[in-house]
Amino acid sequence: MRRVLLDTRYTLVGFPTAVIGFVTMVAGFAAGVGTAVVWIGVPLLAGTLLVARGFADAERGWLSDVLKRPPVRPRYRPAPEGAGRFRRVVNPLTNGQSWLDLLHGILNFPFAVLAFVLTVVFWAIPILGLTYPLYGLITSRIPGNAELPELLGLGSGYLVNTIFYVSLGLVFTFVMPFMVRGAALVRAGLGRALLTGVAELQERIDDLAEGRAAAVSAEANALRKLERDIHDGPQQRLVSLAMELSRAQRQLAKDPEAASATISSAISATRETLDELRALSRGIAPPILSDRGLAPALAALAGRCTVPVDLDVQIVGRFQAATENAIYFVCAETLTNVAKHSRATICTVQLLRIGDVLMLTIGDDGVGGAHVAKGHGLAGLADRLRAVDGELTVRSPDGGPTVIVAEVPCA
């Protein structure tokens, strides 16, 4: 019922607004064009466009109720800094959206008339039909008054008329919500196309640009971290290994036993270095992920975590490489944070598909306090997910528990 009332308000209240806007804009546009040759028309046109912008903003507010979307207002370019008075006056003429606002104010009139008529008709017939038993006694006794049932050859009399009108009212009561909704959507469709279409496209372009920048930033941060880890770990071990082998070479002729011990130590250092390199390579392109998919890859992550992990993977099949990499990276980094900082005794990892979205949920019973503020590890995960149109949600009050949800489109 609330939906019907919102649509009715839109079509009824919007009708006089559309009439006033149509008259104002047509008159202003005609006057402006007619006097443009003597320059009086230029400020008239600019003023008309500003008026159209006001009507357009009101329409955008109503559209959010009808279309169940958040209001989207396009950006109107301001006059250049330091511009003169005339340049500021004519600035609306340089905005393409201003002309679309004017076009909407003119084209909206017939749509508003149609929506208004349909709404009034499909509200009036049910009301009149269902209330006929109240006023029908009076109208049926007026001499010479021919009721509709009688004109249709269905008979005459108060009872026949009552049955006919109440039945008609019931039918139109059932049909009315669909007709009112349809009338509102037809008019709202024009408004969305002219008043918010460009803004929604620009918003999508901005989101893509922001996602691309986030991906570049995330990759740059990952490369810097990898470079630092290699410098602080394997590189130092390899330098130490070279020194150990040089010492063993010098000891080989003088003290074979000491040389053998040095070589044994170097072999152990080699194994540790290899293990560390393997651990670092998992964050770049884990072979198990590319070869076998997400389920085995997440199982391997869970098996390596120092905190017990309850793993529940409810997906089958493969997905795009970028999607799988994002899910894997979020899980790997989150489990690392759980092991290092959470002081948790148990961790849960669930991966399932809901429609065209992969949802990864990771929870632990640790101390909480995790957040996605800049400068923290989770901010990098949020940037990585935005690069694939994903979203990261963190709920981690002080004292715990922590729940991290990553949603990634997989259509």
Structural write-up:
The protein is an alpha+beta fold. It folds into three domains: 201 residues, no CATH class; 50 residues; 118 residues, Heat Shock Protein 90 (2-Layer Sandwich). 69% of the residues lie in helices and 9% in strands. It has 13 helices and five strands. The chain is elongated.
Can you tag this structure with a few keywords?
3 domains, 13 helices, single chain, alpha+beta, 9% strand, Heat Shock Protein 90, 5 strands
In short, what is this structure?
This protein has 411 residues and is α+β, with helices and mostly antiparallel strands.
Broad structural category:
alpha+beta
What's the count of strands?
5
Q: Please indicate the count of domains.
A: 3
Sequence of secondary-structure elements: HHHHHHHHHHHEHEEHEE
Strand order of the largest sheet: 1-2-3-5-4
> How much strand?
5-15%
Give the overall pLDDT as a whole number: 79
Largest sheet: 5 strands, mixed
State Rg. Answer: 36 Å
Helix count, DSSP H or I runs of 4 or more residues: 13
| Low-confidence runs of at least 5 consecutive residues | none
Relative helix content? 55-70%
- Give the oligomeric state of the chains in this entry, treating copies of one chain as homo and distinct chains as hetero: single chain
Question: For the terminal residues, how far apart are their CA atoms?
Answer: 35 Å
Shape designation = elongated
